[in-house]
Amino acid sequence: MSPHDLTKQYVFVINHTSLLDAAVIPKAFRQPVRPLGKAELSKIPVFGFIYKNAIVSVNRNSATDRFHSLVTLKSIIGKGISVLFFPEGTYNQTHQPLKSFFDGAFRIAIETQTPVKPVLFLDNYRRLPYQDALSLNPGRCRILFLDEVSVSGLTTHDAEKLKQDVFQLMENKLREYRVTWISQPKDRP
Q1: In this structure, is residue 116 part of a structural domain?
Q2: Phi and psi at residue 57, in whole multiples of 5°?
Q3: Does 130 map to a domain?
Q4: Which of 18, 21, 27, 124 is 20 to 30 A distant from 181 in Cα terms?
Q5: How many domains does the chain have?
Q6: Which domain range does residue 158 map to?
Q7: Could you read off the pLDDT tens digit of each residue along the chain, which spans 189 residues?
Q8: Interaxial angle between packed helices 104-112 and 63-78, expressed in degrees from 0 to 180 and rounded to the nearest 10
Q9: Does 4 map to a domain?
Q10: How far apart are CA 6 and CA 26, in angstroms?
Q11: What distance in Å separates the CA atoms of residue 170 and residue 145, rounded to the nearest whole number?
């Protein structure tokens, strides 16, 4: 691993297990970044107003909306601003390190030739699990910036391989750090 370069533009991909994940983003990144998020969250009173103005929203049930979101994200990258994806699409409610990834982040990275920067939130689930918004626990929230993954010279035909390579990299590190939501081999019957 190498130190995170705050001056470089990335397509960030982050694991998603906690209600705390979105709240940690401004503190964690300390650089201009626009996340992609679910459109339905913009309907929550007060929070929705802030959310709608901070993220690029997407209605995943609409092909037209997905297309427009991708165009917007490419435009943001064109302005020199990083973008951020939770490639699992929603909370990982399994006891595996990650849920399967959607393609969007990897296609955008290739189409814009912007490196992918995997990021792991290691403790957010322990601090505030997705199942219970009232169970905030004190403690540290470690964030692990993995080495960037170059997309130089890749074409959209390489998107699936890029997605799988990043998935494997992130999964291996989550297992190495023995994060709490994973059923470890000794925990299994």
Answers
A1: yes
A2: -90, 155
A3: yes
A4: 27
A5: 1
A6: 11-187
A7: 667 888 999 999 999 998 888 888 888 888 999 988 777 766 677 666 666 667 787 777 778 888 888 899 999 999 999 999 999 988 898 889 999 999 999 999 999 999 999 999 999 999 988 777 788 888 888 999 999 999 999 999 999 999 999 999 999 999 999 998 887 555 444
A8: 40
A9: no
A10: 13
A11: 10
Strand partners, 118: 13
pLDDT in tens, 129-171: 877 778 888 888 899 999 999 999 999 999 999 999 999 999 9
Contact indicator for 181, 125 with CB cutoff of 8 Å: yes
DSSP assignment of the chain: -----TTS--EEEE---BTTHHHHHHHHH-S-EEEEEEGGGGGSTTHHHHHHHHSEEE-TT-HHHHHHHHHHHHHHHHTT-EEEE-TTSS---SSSS-PPPPSHHHHHHHHHT--EEEEEE-SHHHHSBTT-TT----S---EEEPPPB--TT--GGGHHHHHHHHHHHHHHHHHHTT-TTS--GGG--
Size of the chain, expressed as the number of residues it contains? 189
C-alpha 156/C-alpha 109 separation (Å) is 9
| CATH number of the domain bearing residue 27 | 3.40.1130.10
